[in-house]
Design a protein that fits this description.
Four copies of one chain form a homotetramer. By secondary structure, chain A is an alpha/beta fold. Chain A has ten helices and 14 strands. In chain A, strands 13-12-11-10-9-8-7-14 form an eight-stranded parallel sheet. The first copy, chain A, has a four-stranded antiparallel sheet with strand order 2-3-1-4. The longest helix of chain A is centred in the C-terminal third of the chain and has 20 residues. The first copy, chain A, starts with a strand and ends with a helix.
């Protein structure tokens, strides 16, 4: 951590701060230029709050050198983490496609989609029972009934299931779920992160639509600090000024996250673009950029879907996509 | 709601959609150009999900004409709403300043700040007991103990209190709180919004740092649809590309929100800028733009604050600010 | 184009507007709902300024249905455009890599890079003679001398050359340049666009770092409307809130542009990311997403480069990349 | 400037870099932590290109401590600059309103607006002769003829005139213009900045719609480095995700710019919001935030304006605004 002092900062105040910093067990390297006094703090600064230093009248600015995350940091854990979701491995060379409808609507729908995505080669089944919707008047999911249908579909298709948890109060309902999704709007719902940090269930943590990669890693750190190190990160598009897609898919997040962390990184092109015909090119681009998996919305009848119809693939489109995905992952594995 | 069809959309599909739309009790006005077929849907479209239409193969795009919010909409409620927080009125010409520390640290600190802000003319006391922090290693607030200290400080200073609720599980602890704050990271924590929609307590709803004004109003609608119409909106800065301030304060949100909604709108310049010396000019600008109130962070010793020190005013600075605030609100009331 | 009127707009004003619109040769389809009056304008509205309508007191809002670009629009030109740059074709299945240093520094440097990128299989040589730099104190390029060196390097390596034009005043110096680049900061330098619209030379038009795809196409339209239809579009990263990369590469721009326009689309991963080790994964992702080419910065000694050293590949790295590019383009051509 | 080295950077390379840095006349203060080696460069680093350092394999990152602008920097020029535009002073306590139509349309229009804004108390007349328009098919201004009409209107109303220069080629036509505007899309048109840097005419430099404040100051530095220190900065709204206004007016730019620079700062609420009824509250907010002036679009018949009608005030609305502006500037001068 680097402290840059204001010109003419009174020596007395500087000495006081030095004592406080040394009391934390940190060492200080001082650099005095013609106009500028800099300090480099030496030691473990990951738990120091920059604001504590920035609040001082004598301080011009504070810059962090070390990353504030430890458990998620590749520096301290160089090998790729492989997350095992009920026998399906993700990360460290293991690639999985998670597929299914945005929301579970009825037995026939979820079973039909489940069977078809399994047959096409998906590794996990997704389906929403509790749905975060912008409007209070929109369909909010089937709730407990939806979870029940999802677990039945799991038996029908044989795939592990992933579904979104929206509040700590529902956590008991999710005991048989194989992977719990934390959605984009809850990436910084810290009480929810703490709650799933207590579980053993793998967590699929989606990037907030306006959150930086370091903030995503700090949210992963919340879960890991609680004891649950089975975290998979998911890039799903960020909010920008461009109106032609729902969000802007940030594929550079893949190599950058893989540099910063050992956790697996998957991509959700369906939510990023919000348009059916863009899913395939962006899915292939995600593979080329090094993703460990994909999350794809599939619906047996997208035109009648209760949510996210415009971006859902039909089972036939998904089958075609899976064929290309298999060939592309094989190609890039060899490249 | 306007539907624009794809060129060469098959008539059979169009006729099918017409039946479905009419079954919802809506009328259709058709406009056929040389290349383009448009439909205007007539009737109450506020509860129609645009995706349901956009998902059709025959549909090029869907545009909303009516706003999707009803209870928050000024069109259906032309008079300004006045929210009464334990005797302190906000909105409809009533202006209040909410002041206090970012987080409650101990009895001495909160009482000292409470007394000084009350003496300077603040209308409500703020103080965080449960703190949303980016890092799991940062101070997370005193929790129940913090709430207890806040309620004691309320007795000491005589001001109603405002504090942040982070999860539905804590709602019982907030029974004696006069106004509940929903923070920027929870603006789309829909389960939390539903929970506070069941209460009678006034809700201070902060704009998400990357949310549009219409999304803010939809979140207000969640609370109001649940039965709690005591909602105050708060602009607190949005995320942009500009690095010199923590966020970019969007003061144009004030007149725009006041056009769209009857709810009171206040401004938090402390979180928006993140810098102590910017609070005063931005507070005065907020008044000039028509804000119904301000939220200001004040700390007895900002240099030692456990959070948000860099943006906290000292009691002396706050006293000077309040003098200017009083004069500025009087000036603009007359202008 | 759709006009939505304000409630209670006076009929007299509406009738007046109707006359003006019909005088432009447009037809009007009217739709009257319970609260809302809509008009659909029928005919060629591409040259109508939306502001002319939006400025009316009686108008609530105006929405465009037709795209405002014609010559760049795939609707009116369904086949892919193939641009021929001195024998090197780009677009419609023809893929090219443009490579070279950010700026031309001296004979030895540009010739050395030119020869090595040619040997590795680049199709065109890039090199800056006039450099847009944020700081007036930074190296601004060798100017006329740089152009001379570039044209000599062209003879040495046998590749067509691409270089940036910054102002209409320099256009005469660019007569022997094979493709003229319009940089990101000049995408809306309309006088410059008009100037290159008068030429026959192919134009490489880079997306402005905060411009939408429709704005990019309107800038292409400026050039094409002037008579020069040899335009190649280049995605090079957009400005977002994410600080870990210089810009955020928007690969979804590739399929979206290809839907909207017949012009070729290439990608510059070097400027987008600003980091050497990210160039390869993002170049491969661009190919997977359907790009018609790549623009890659290569320097014989990146550590001593006068600009953009951090993102420049060494000739060895470029050679390895080209091998993968060849295999990836072949793979995706077959997929 | 601070250099952070990679772990395990070879000493030989580090020693080499040390020699190069010392050869530039800079001193180095070294700080060696347990994992991290930092250097603070001491001396005038304003002309060092950070990329030159960041490109090294041994360098992890480079952080700037000193600002890269000198002439625009308040540190080296603590007093407010007062720019005198043909007798009208701006800055250092002098406040001016610049008003007029977006574009000059004909004699009657510009003279009528000129007289009315002068009568209402505007200090300068604006009017566009060369108009940057997104569409090549939109009205592009009257060009030379427009300038002629503007200079005639100047005689009629007695106010100095401001108009936009779009390309170096037109500079000779602007000899009698009192202040030259560089528009938002040309803020980083560096050849144009160099050109106006050679003049004595005051320059109104508008912030690029996606440019940071430091980039704005670097563009001012371009003009000042050329010898023209008569620069006025103008905040006119930035591009964000919020769709309800044309841009987001960043009023926090005013106090922040005034901290960073001695140059005057004015605000253009018309372009920022794009909506007539928002001009007044945002103009008053700009005054409260400390602006040195305002730029307001006024048209004698906004509904017929050839451009920017939706945001143009009528002369009557402008007269009402000017009355409030006078009272507000007087109020804040005393506050």
């Amino acid at each position: 951590m680097i402290i840059i002092f204001k010109e003419n900062a009174p020596e007395k105040e500087i000495n006081l701060l030095e004592k406080e910093i040394r009391a934390l067990g940190l060492d200080i390297h001082k650099s005095k230029g013609q106009d500028t006094l800099l300090w480099g703090l030496v030691g473990d600064t990951s738990k120091i709050n920059m604001d504590w230093l920035a609040a001082r009248q004598i301080v011009e600015s504070v810059k962090r050198v070390q990353e504030p995350y430890k458990k998620a940091n590749r520096k301290f854990h160089p090998q790729d983490t492989v997350v095992d979701v009920a026998g399906k491995k993700i990360g460290g060379g293991h690639f999985q496609v998670i597929a299914g409808p945005c929301s579970i609507e009825n037995t026939q729908q979820i079973n039909s989609v489940a069977l078809s995505v399994a047959q096409s080669g998906a590794g996990l089944l997704r389906g929403g029972a509790f749905k975060p919707r912008t409007s209070p008047y929109a369909f909010q999911g089937l709730h407990d009934e939806g979870l029940k249908l999802l677990l039945e579909a799991k038996k029908v298709c044989g795939l592990p299931v992933v579904t979104e948890l929206m509040t700590p109060e529902h956590v008991d309902l999710f005991q048989d779920v194989d992977m719990i999704q934390i959605g984009t709007r809850n990436m910084q719902n810290f009480e929810l992160l703490k709650e799933v940090g207590k579980l053993k269930t793998p967590i699929l943590l989606k990037r907030g639509m306006a959150n930086t990669l370091d903030e995503l890693l700090m949210s992963a750190e919340y879960i890991m600090a609680g004891g649950n190190e089975n975290v998979i990160l998911c890039e799903r598009g960020i909010r920008t000024f461009e109106p032609s897609t729902r969000n802007t898919l940030d594929l550079s997040a893949i190599p950058m996250l893989k540099k910063k962390t050992h956790l697996p990184v998957i991509v959700d092109p369906s939510h990023a673009c919000g348009i059916r015909w863009m899913v395939e090119p962006m899915a292939l681009a995600a593979i080329a950029a090094g993703a460990d998996g994909l999350m794809i919305e599939v619906h047996n009848d997208p035109e009648k879907a209760l949510c996210d119809g415009p971006q859902s693939l039909t089972p036939e489109m998904f089958n075609t996509l899976m064929d290309k995905v298999r060939r592309a992952t094989a190609f890039f594995r060899e490249l």
